[in-house]
Design a protein that fits this description.
- The chain is of the alpha+beta class.
- It has 2 domains: 115 residues, OB fold (Dihydrolipoamide Acetyltransferase, E2P); 67 residues, no CATH class.
- The chain is built from 6 helices and 8 strands.
- A hairpin with a 4-residue loop joins β7 and β8.
- α3 packs across α5.
């Protein structure tokens, strides 16, 4: 089932400004925080040196640049997430897709390599691999999507035939060509599968709940017509 979303609903589900989960995603590890903090310190020092050496008189501009640089470590994750959200919102049309898990499998993805030297002075290459879950989701119309995300322990409850929901994006009004899609939600398990949390999950759950209620009411309406 693929239901077109209005532009207003689409922009509610795909936020412009970073959500808490998106901010957490781009906050990263402690090493990422230290890297941003170092950039903040270097930028502030550079501004102070430039002000002292060149005797800049634009006090207000220097102050603003100093504040922005000092808090770079704090606001940069918001900027990163917002830019990624903007890439999704540039699509003209969005739709709510509900299908089922047709198949799933686990793969190993090479994330990078690290070179080091062992005790014998020999060069050793260490491969950094990450297990990923691959999902094939589709419906009765023949619509198919292949989705890949980092494997988590919570994914062990996923089985073939489970209902899966997501938002799809396209530049065609009939959604005949899907350009991008969001993370996947399994309503029976209240489980999200994703690498990056694209959606405002509260709005998305509300859309899904209303569509489920509409589907449950349709058979009842048909029965009443037959009885009449």
């Amino acid at each position: 089932m693929l239901v077109p979303l209005t532009r207003q609903k689409f922009e509610q589900v795909v936020p412009l400004i970073a959500t808490g989960l998106q901010y957490k995603y781009y906050w990263g590890k402690f090493s990422n925080f230290l890297q941003r903090l170092l950039i903040s310190v270097v930028a502030v020092v550079a501004i102070l040196l430039a002000t002292f050496v060149f005797k800049l008189e634009f006090a207000s501009i220097v102050f603003v640049l100093g504040v922005v640089s000092a808090f770079f470590w704090l606001w940069y994750p918001v900027f990163q997430a917002s830019m990624r959200n903007l890439q999704c919102r540039r699509y003209k049309y969005g739709g709510f897709f509900r299908g089922r898990v047709l198949d799933w499998w686990i793969t190993d993805q090479l994330m990078g390599k690290t070179e080091t030297v062992n005790n014998k002075g020999e060069l050793v290459i260490i491969e950094n691999r990450e297990k990923q879950i691959n999902l094939e989701v589709g419906d009765d119309t023949g619509f198919r999507i292949e989705f890949v995300a980092p494997l988590r322990s919570a994914h062990k409850v996923i089985t073939r035939g489970q209902i899966a929901e997501m938002v799809v994006m396209s530049n065609r009004a009939d959604l005949s060509s899907i350009e991008q899609f969001s993370d996947i939600y399994f309503p029976s398990r209240d489980l999200w599968v994703s690498d990056y949390p694209y959606l405002r999950r509260d709005f998305f759950n509300e859309v899904g709940r209303r569509l489920r209620e509409d589907q449950q009411q349709k058979p009842r309406r048909r029965r009443r017509r037959v009885e009449d």
